[in-house]
Amino acid sequence: MPSKSPTVLKGLVEINFYVSVAVLIAGCVLSVSEDASFFEFNVDLYGPLANNLRMILVYLALTEVFLCIGCFLLRKSHFFILIGLSLVMMIGSLEIYGMINGIEVDPDLSIFFAYTGLSHIAFGLSAYFSNEKNINVKTKPY
Q1: Would residue 55 be called left, alpha or beta, if left means φ above 0 and alpha means ψ between -120 and 50 degrees?
Q2: Which pairs count as long-range contacts for 129-133, CB under 8 Å and 24+ apart, including other chains?
Q3: Buried b vs exposed e over 76-87: b needs ≥16 C-beta within 10 Å?
Q4: Three-state SS across the chain?
Q5: Nearest in space to 134 (alpha carbons), one of 122, 126, 15, 14
Q6: Can you give the pTM of this predicted structure?
Q7: Under 8 Å CB-to-CB from 103, ≥6 apart: which residues?
Q8: Alpha-carbon gap, residue 119 to 19, rounded angstroms
Q9: How far is C-alpha 71 from the geometric centre of its chain's CA atoms?
Q10: Euclidean distance between CA atoms 126 and 109, whole angstroms
Q11: Rounded to 10 degrees, what is the CA torsion of 66, 72, 74, 77?
């Protein structure tokens, strides 16, 4: 009798992925609000700098929605590996953004991008290996 642990693990990875998508979209959209934001925008972030970072997060939420729709419609869930890598790379981008503008960026943003990025990578890898397994089963001659 085959073990159910890979199926359970795949299910947990999927649930975590959908939670991370919801957290990503909510966190980005709520960053527009002073009161409801998950992140603390430093007092150094005033005027255009504060709005730049907030608008980047809003665009990221919109991009996430369209990427999810596209990947699921095309049945290319393994593309989430690349999306996850770009989210993880956002951590470095934020550090550079802070250095260039001489401001401190909320460390919660790094945690946010690490969680969402790694969740996307795990989901994409799960889809990739699941697809590979299905391809190998279909190509066996017996």
Answers
A1: alpha
A2: 130/10, 131/78
A3: ebbbbbebbeeb
A4: CCCCHHHHHHHHHHHHHHHHHHHHHHHHHHCCCCCCCCCCCCCCCCCHHHHHHHHHHHHHHHHHHHHHHHHHHHCCHHHHHHHHHHHHHHHHHHHHHHHHHCCCCCHHHHHHHHHHHHHHHHHHHHHHHHHHHHHHHHHCCC
A5: 126
A6: 0.80
A7: 42, 44, 45, 49
A8: 9
A9: 14
A10: 26
A11: 110
- The rounded distance, in Å, linking the Cα atoms of 64 and 66 is 6
pLDDT in tens, 33-42: 777 777 776 5
Phi, psi of 3, rounded to the nearest 5 degrees: -75, 140
47-90 pLDDT, tens digit per residue, is 666 677 788 889 999 999 999 999 889 888 889 999 999 999 99
Helices 80-101 and 48-74 pack at an angle, to 10 degrees, of 170
